[in-house]
Amino acid sequence: MEAPDKSDSDPQKLGEDVFDIESPDEETTLDEERSPLPFSKEIGLNPITDTIFDMSPPSPPPSPISAAQLCGEDEKCIAEFNELQVTIRKSFGALQEEFEVEEPGDVVRQLGSHSKQIHLAKTASFDAHIDLLTQEVSDAIQKALPFLNMQHHDVVAALHESEKIIPQREESSEMEKPETKASQAKEDTSKSMAVAAASHLYPTGSATSSVLSHRPTPISTHLLSTLSEIYTTPSMGSKVSFELREQQHSETEAKPPDAVSGTIQIDTDYTPGSSRLRKDGKKRVESSRLSIPSSRMERAKKLVREEGDTKVIPVDPGLLTYAASKVGKSVFDVWIKHMSKQMMKSKQRMDILRDEHVSRRKSASTSRLYQLMSEYLPETRHYIQKHIVNHLEYTLAKSRFTINPRSAMYAAQLSVRDRLIETFNDTTQIVNMKCIKRAYYLSIEYLIGRSMRDNLINLQLMGQYATALLELGYSLEDMLEFERDPGLGNGGLGRLAACFLDSLTTQSYPVWGYGLRYQYGMFRQEIFKGRQIEIPDVWLSGGNPWEIERKDVRYKVRFGGFVRELPKTPTQIVSEPCSCTWEGGSVVDAVAYDWPISGYGTFTTNNLRLWSSRPNELFDLDSFNKGNYGEMLKERQDVEHLCSVLYPDDSTEAGRLLRFKQQYFFASATMQDIIRRAIHTGNPLTKLPSLAACQLNDTHPSICIPELMRLLVDVHGMRFFTAWDVCSHVFSYTCHTILPEALETWPVSFFERVLPRHLKIIYDINWFFIQAVKRKYPGNESIIKSLSLIDESTPRRVRMSHLAIVGSHKVNGVAQLHTNILKEQTFKPFFQLFPRRFINITNGVTPRRWLLSCNPFLSQIISHVLGSRNWVTDTRELSLLRSACRSRSLQRLWRAAKILNKERLAEHIQQTRGISISPTSMFDIQVKRIHEYKRQLMHALFILHKYLWMKSQVEEADDIDCAELLPGVVSRVHIFAGKAAPAYHRAKQIISLICAIANLVNNDPDIGKALKVVFLPNYSVSLAEIIIPASDVHEHISTAGTEASGTSVMKFCFSGGLLLGTRDGASIEIAQDVGEKNVFFFGASSSEVDKTRQLYAKKEKQESLCEELTEVLDFIEDHKLDTNGLALTDCCGFMDIIKDLRDGHDYYLIAHDFKSYIETQAKVESLWLNPDIWVEKSILTTAGMGRFSSDRSTAQYARKIWHVQPYPLVCEVGDERQWEPKEKTKGIRSKLASSGIPDEVEKEVEIEEAAGM
């Protein structure tokens, strides 16, 4: 299919000369930052093309408006307006830094413009002006939402439904009254909070307050009879008190009718907005004065009871609701936060999660059903045991004689999943009911890892389940080994996605992940005679207890077929693309599988939705009767192959086509699901950006952009330019690399065969985009060619990264260096075109899995030293370790924890590889995907260099039998792990070389234990959880400027491993926080790489190699690695490596950096000989990692890109009172004692405990 010929159109005449380019010095206004328009805001708006593609500069901000202009001579209105300005400006001052805005004048102006109309409305009957009032307040509140941090519909619903819902309740039947009364009271709680915020927006005495006072049935009055029953609890965690005294008035002062003075006061252990105790350990007291009507005060006096010198009202919701509306929301929020938490802890599920429309119409026959579903599962040991046994007998159909540890583990997993389903349903219901904006994380892979331990830690049920299972005859620690790693990811991209879901849920952000349910994962790696062997990863063979098959969530995905254009409508512009129908081809069904994602210390539970392919027709009876068995089987297999394997082998056209279809299958199902959910909210699809934010995790999901355009235009009848405006609001793009293979391009022929409609949409987008570029760069064909979505070389290809940039409102790199390279090199023309579109958000990892879960020994020491577990959700507190880094007792504990972790890894290596290593040796670890730019080859060559040096030293010392006995020799264990892509031949050669070196070194009696080399196959999350805590030094030695971020660096540093690496990715930022003196850097920097490559290529072949590297290459070339039959029998693979290095074909600068690498390794060994300084640097490394938590990363995504707010079901996270440091420390003391650690260390722990350290 050719691109549409639009050369005969007159862009200037039609107004389609789109995309004026923004000036670099333009300031970003509040509206542009909060509602980014990739085309219209950054480039301008065009009145002819539906105000989407115009190039005109942004209009200046509106001038301030005075009170006199709004209110004329109405003094009361002027006073209200001035008071309103003061209120908003105070709110703005507190939140200015968070929202990064400069002037709230527009908000004040908008609110002030409605003040007079609301003031006038109060003089008439409320019912006559309800519609006008609701609309005016709706507009005003919408503008004020960033400052109030509230949802718009909360306020509007409170104003509107307080008049219309309550009267309907009074008219309901007798059968509905008892159930409705209780449930409605709980729903009114949410509405009363909204009213309090609305009253805070319009200060006391304002027009709105007067209007609200005309309500026939005030919400606070309605709550009096029922709310006390809901919220009264024995232990509130806070104390609400009123100081009552008569108000004194002078003779000349007008006395308010029926009013007395009072002070509302709340004493609480918590600082508002924080989950931590105050540093001084004292309670925080918040109080405000207000006038309370005598009628309410009389009721209050009846409830008063004395506690010492304070008169306390236990709970009076009506009075508190009224007081909060007068005092302001801060005091009220603190009280509501504690009340909601206590209610959730007592397992009273909030009925506000139940849709009011449904609850009002439920019949008596379903009342019992609602009642039974209104409580959470108990957390007692006895109930957990009963729950597990029920699953064994009724779900798995096991008898008392057929139960085994594996089935018991599966039943325990199902019981944990049941608890997640409860909170998952509640989270989903409240987000849907309140139309809260969700973020959707779109990733082709998720490296989740085992879930049982993490879920128990997040739910804080580890102790209960361990005890319950022990009494049933099973050890939880042993049973955890039965869980298999899900085959849903491969490398850092998938692990980052999993970390993000964990952090977003922990922080209570409404987020869903979308991916594919791979039946066989990528592959399971085995090492056979030094070669990598790929076998299917049948991780689903035993079932997956965490997933929920949604057979009712099914979408049709089309491949192939033809496109038929529909006639234009009279309202369409001549050049505007028309809608089409896509027909024919084959259709595949996408079936949803949900995976609940828990968060630490929160009731919020998000979802990971995975798609599985199914035949559209389950069974073709006609073909079966005709005997076409082979054809039927082939069609079914073709469908199922779509989700069989992650990253199919792309060395053949069939493999590339399968990967292309796999990505579209994922995109189509996801976009259909998001649109369906948006439609169910009742909002038009033009409001989709206010309901959904889609993050493209690298280029794989970028086909979602034309797919959303197709659905909006062809299926839902939206005009093309309107649909593009919606689409460009919804998407944002994260680029994770600068390597060519990751910046995907697909042949145009693939689109013509598989996605003909999407190719036409891409052509249309590209045409409008190029017109804008031509206006900015007239006659500059080279830059037009570089920016085009179509690569016109042979064969023509679609640039998916370009499509992602043009179709997104934000593009971010994942480390500062990486973002700079994107701006200055990779996407420089796009950055010049859209300078404000590119931002940086440095990656992070979740401390829950990569420190708390995988390194329990070190975690307990950190909690003991810091005195709390708050660092689990606020890693900035790790910086407090710096003050104790030289403590002898802390250093001994730190070293002891490292030894325990190394013993665990040594035991694993002995069991799986049969290699005996000493835990006292230095563990030098490099584990990651095998790739040339990660330079595992350089590490392997260094090991061979070290081996040759040791051999020479043994030969010179005749009286020494073994290298480990030589003075000054540091005993080292080099550990590798990682997979090579099936079609990546050079990466497989590197694995073979490492295995050959390991075979040579490990079997040489002259070396002994002084040097060991281990390659651990089938690297996975569960294997990383054993390796990472045991690292002494970890290597991240990629060529500078090639690694995007390197999240594996962060995982090692959290556990105190010292970094040996290049100045690449996030390592630069880590060194800034950890301290340059605590890391080992070497090699060319990113700015030197290009110059070095040019100089290196001009040198003579032999001169470019250092003496040490030449010696190593000569050793390999002499076939001395081919021993014991474990190396490659034909050393052609090794010869290719040697030839490239000798001939200067060294793109990743191994030869250039090798000398510097050897010198830095010598510094590492020198420091190892001073254990106190080594441990001190290890402690400082962990202390400096606070910024590299994925909690920080995801919060930046939510604030800077998605504009979503956290919506917690429970406000408190990491409750201090649930953590007892001394009790937890006993566990590690017993573990240390059993491991042979000296008694003096244990005594020092006891001394520290007694001192309250």
Characterize the structure shown.
The protein is globular and about 95 Å long. It is an alpha/beta fold and 1253 residues long. The chain is built from 50 helices and 27 strands. The strands form seven sheets. A nine-stranded mixed sheet has the order 10-13-14-7-6-15-16-20-21, sandwiched between helices. A six-stranded parallel sheet has the order 24-23-22-25-26-27, with helices on both faces. α38 packs parallel to α39.
Radius of gyration: 33 Å
Proportion of β residues?
Answer: 5-15%
Helix content: 40-55%
Q: Determine the mean pLDDT.
A: 75
This entry's quaternary arrangement is: single chain
- State the end-to-end CA separation: 73 Å
Low-confidence stretches: 1-20, 23-65, 91-138, 140-293, 302-362, 1126-1130, 1210-1253
Number of strands: 27
How many strands, which pairing sense, and closed or not: the largest β-sheet? 9 strands, mixed
Spatial order of the strands in the main sheet? 10-13-14-7-6-15-16-20-21
- The SS-based structural class is alpha/beta
Shape summary: globular
Please, how many helices?
50
